[in-house]
Amino acid sequence: MSHESTLTKPQAMIFDMDGTLFQTETLLLPAYHKLFDTLRSEGLYTAPTPPEERILGSLGMLLDDIWKVVMPDGSQEAHNRANELLLELELEGLAGGDTLLYPEVKETLKALHEQGVKLYVASNGLEHYISGIVDTHELAELFDGLYSAGKHCTRTKVDLVKLLLEEQQVDSAWMVGDRSSDVEAGKKNGLHVIGCAYAGFGNHDELKGSDVLISSFTELLKLYEEAASHT
């Protein structure tokens, strides 16, 4: 891991959503259990609900790949129905108001925005899920763009971030995330990567290759303020 002094002030910051900005388990786990209750009631799945660790460990993957991990014994019909149910139940959960961002996320994003940093989301999630979180937690005015695999039909986060950089004409950015897919997306697009080590969904190797690891979201502001300006 390189030292913080090697960072230069970016034009933009690109954020993963789950496990980075949003405490996913506050929304996901209640929806997860309802989802399997519904699949069983509809006769699409007969086994007990798979362990929560499977879905939490799959965060950051594309949705189709998640179900292959969570219920490898499920039919394609069950996987397709799970896709529909998860979005429906998560949007209901967001409307219910019991979900959480990580501490100081909104305040830190606001401070970065006020300093002129362009802020983006790049997530492998569905479009309405990402926009639902942003709207529920009143973050819309802080972001310059929301990019999701669901909307842009990208197969990897590398491709999604590449598209974002091209469309938004961003020359320098930090990729901020908690999974290996975020590290890969940043590095393959020539970006500095800030690894978020506070969510705890992945294994210890998830953030290998990050330039800096942070243990709370507020550290991002300090990193930005101490980063060297472009010469």
Automatic annotation (TrEMBL):
Listed GO MF terms: phosphoglycolate phosphatase activity
SUPFAM superfamilies xrefs: HAD-like
Highest taxon listed in the record's lineage: Bacteria
GO biological-process terms attached to the record: DNA repair
A GO-annotated cellular component: cytosol
InterPro entries according to UniProt: HAD-like_hydrolase_sf, HAD-like_sf, HAD_2, HAD_sf, PGP-like_dom2
Gene3D superfamilies: HAD superfamily/HAD-like, Putative phosphatase, domain 2
Pfam families on file: HAD_2
Annotated protein name in UniProt: MTA/SAH nucleosidase
UniProt source species: Paenibacillus azoreducens
